[in-house]
Amino acid sequence: MCVIAGYLGNEPAAPILLEMLRREEGLAGGFYSGIVTLHEGVLHHAKVVGDVETLIANTPALQLPGTIGLAHSRTPSGGGQPWAHPFIDAFEKLAYIANGAPGAYKGKVDFDTAAQKLFQRGYTFSSAQKGQVGNYPMLSDGSCVHASDILCQSIAANFEDLPPGPLRLLQAASATYQELPGAIVGLCLHLDHPDEIVGARHNKPMEIGRLGDGSYVIASSTLAFPEEVEQYFRAPAMSGLRLHRKEGIQILPFENRSLIPVGLPPSAAAVSEVVINLLREKKSVAVPTVRDAVVPLWPSGVLDEKEVLVFPLLAALAKEGKIELCDERVPGVDGQGTVPRTIAHWRG
Fold it and tell me: What pLDDT is recorded for position 78?
């Protein structure tokens, strides 16, 4: 699990992105962090092993230029600094971040064949290393590669295969998410489309807010949103989405009928009962534990949307004063430094 953030507007993107990431990284991140902005035909990016404060302290992340960008923070699922997001395609044209896991698609997606096709076209993987890393794909050449690195290169390749047009990046990302599916959500930027952010979503959260000046923000939770957000929208499941500076929002539903469906959500009452009973019993609970407690409410054989239901519920309970959300510090990767973990304290 990870957290994602995006900004498309009129102000410098980096400070806004990093503040949003700081607000949400304790929900499901903090161990690896990164940022990318697009400015004057160049992707400017930085990433580290560590939290947002580590990223700011050790890179020029806060000074990256541009009014459009993405940021990301993830859990300790293995790898060094190259395994942090964003991933940049081999030709430095596309930047990609994602949140998710194989989920119900574990063992069903042929990453090796996809990687070999990309190799033949000149695409390489910055995350490639010898030996198994976590549960990430092992290729036939003996290297292990971050799945998001493969998706990044795949979106870039699909983009090159499509004719020019306003929906080209949206079509490329949507096609990739149907060719290499997972329990995931992702965002990307491309030099040829400097005024848009494109996302694709199976089941992980992608919340979108609009500010009074017309700017868009994107996050894994509304807890990350600036106070100035005036309108709110949730990206639909099983679809691609385009946010354009002038043309607004466009949605492209997935057409592949063989994809594992997103399950119908349980009732708000059922989710609230599970979450509140857990909080009342334990008094203080880490957000990932709260999130996972509602999984049995979905039937087997479908993708759940646990974060989509739990994160807004926690935000509402905090606003009502029934819980307090506080970040505690836990050991970082390999015990180096500390990172935030958000704890829900029952106050009801």
Answer: 86
CA distances from 296 to 270, 291, 302, 317 (A): 11, 11, 11, 22
CA angle 74, 80, 82 (to 5 degrees): 85
Q: Is 268-346 CATH 1.10.10?
A: yes
What is the C-alpha R_g of the chain?
Answer: 19
Question: Is the pTM for the entire model greater than 0.85?
Answer: yes
For residue 76, is the peptide bond before it cis, meaning its omega torsion is within 30 degrees of 0? no
Q: What is the mean pLDDT of each run of 10 residues along the chain (348 residues)?
A: 95 98 96 98 98 97 98 92 96 97 92 94 93 85 93 98 97 98 98 98 97 96 95 96 96 96 96 98 97 96 96 96 96 92 94
3-state secondary structure of 267: coil
pLDDT for position 328 = 96
Does 2-253 carry CATH code 3.60.20.10?
yes
Are 3 and 221 within 8 A, CB to CB? yes
CA distance between the termini of the chain: 28
Q: Which residue ranges does the chain devote to CATH 1.10.10?
A: 268-346
Q: Are 47 and 86 in contact (CB under 8 A)?
A: yes
Q: What is the pLDDT of residue 134?
A: 82
Closest CA to 186 of 97, 102, 93: 97
DSSP category for residue 236 = P
- In whole angstroms, give the CA distance from residue 213 to residue 211: 5
Helix ranges (DSSP H) in 97-146: 111-120
> How far is residue 34 from each of residues 81, 214, 263, 324, measured CA to CA in Å?
10, 25, 31, 28
**Edge-to-edge order in the sheet of strand 2-8:** 42-49, 32-39, 68-74, 2-8, 216-219, 207-211, 229-234
User: What pLDDT score does 77 carry?
Assistant: 85
Q: What is the pLDDT of residue 1?
A: 79
Which residues have a Cβ under 8 Å from the Cβ of 1 and sit 6 or more positions away? 28, 29, 74, 75, 99, 100, 101, 288, 291, 307
